[in-house]
Amino acid sequence: MGSQPEGRLRVVVIGGGTGLSVLLRGLKHAPVHITAIVTVADDGGSSGRLRKEMDMLPPGDIRNVLTALADTEPLMEKVMQYRFSTGTGLAGHNLGNLLLAAMNEITGDFVTAVKKLSNVLAVRGEVLPASTQSIRLMAEMEDGSIIAGESQIPLTGKRIKRVFLDPEDVVPLTEALIAIDNADAILIGPGSLYTSILPNLLVHGLFTAVKMSAAPKVYICNVMTQPGETDGYSASKHVEVMYNHVGGPFLDTVIVNSASIPEQILEKYAEKGASPVACDLKRLRQLGLHIVAKPLVTFEEGYLRHDANAVSKEVVSLIKRKRRAQKKEKE
Hints:
The protein has 13 helices and twelve strands. By secondary structure, the chain is an alpha/beta fold. It has a single domain (9-42, 132-330), classed as CofD-like domains (Rossmann fold, 3-Layer(aba) Sandwich). 42% of the residues lie in helices and 18% in strands. The strands form three sheets. A seven-stranded parallel beta sheet has the order 3-2-1-7-8-9-10, with helices on both faces. The chain has a three-stranded antiparallel beta sheet with strand order 5-4-6, with helices on one face. Strands 11-12 form a two-stranded antiparallel ribbon. Strand 4 and strand 5 form a beta hairpin. The chain has helices at 17-27, 45-54, 60-69, 74-81, 95-107, 110-120, 174-181, 193-201, 204-212, 235-246, 263-271, 281-286, 308-330; strands at 9-15, 32-38, 126-129, 136-141, 146-148, 160-166, 185-188, 217-220, 253-257, 290-294, 297-300, 303-306. The chain is globular and about 60 Å long. One of its GO terms (molecular function) is LPPG:FO 2-phospho-L-lactate transferase activity. This is Gluconeogenesis factor. It is found in: Cytoplasm. Pfam families: CofD.
């Protein structure tokens, strides 16, 4: 897995879920070396079952990222993402998750399992779990109730006050810390704010490394709100929630979509309780952020997705600008 080509910009991407995978599909074609640091707080579906039955880290988010970064035939992607619909014990399981579970049993170590499967899939870059400890994501809701489990949090119908990890003193993976230390840029998101992004930032040692890094820290804001998590949230609210959880500001740049969304797509999302994340530029400026507000979405089969190639170009140009500025300062 990923020996770094000479002179390539080193980009660390932190998150989980489908948003991160969409971004990585574009970023893997950019002239950068990618290290994806992925949440391991998932406890739902196939991942949750394997986590319980095999006492392993949940493989789902890792599988999505491996598949997104793989340099293989489209058929292999279908194999990795195939979900069984029948079969006693098999129904609901994802084949990629089972491959990771098998590799975990064979190698006796989840990180090694991910590396070995990365080699099989010719993954461009490195994929690392944020921690190798078993983590449960907990949420305190605004009414004071405590909800246990990443999969349960968005289902309560209550507003989230804060999320936290159980145990709270989770130890980050050393390789993840080294990747952050060597990064030319750190990208956070896109992805579910409370259940994909914050579980990584709440790993204290990991966040400390992010904060101490001199690399630009870029938040790629979600295009739509997420029912049960970020109902009614603007772009600045996403940023403020992160700051409240980690004890203060740490971002340099926010990338937000400024494209208007076709009415029929808005209606489709409204049925599920989602609406566009408002791009509140004035408040983002008050937070001291450099703002990249551009049309950065595509429409695939009626769904909104970040335009991975457009976002990747913005990221690469940001890094190059920062490098030129740093070079001038030294002269």
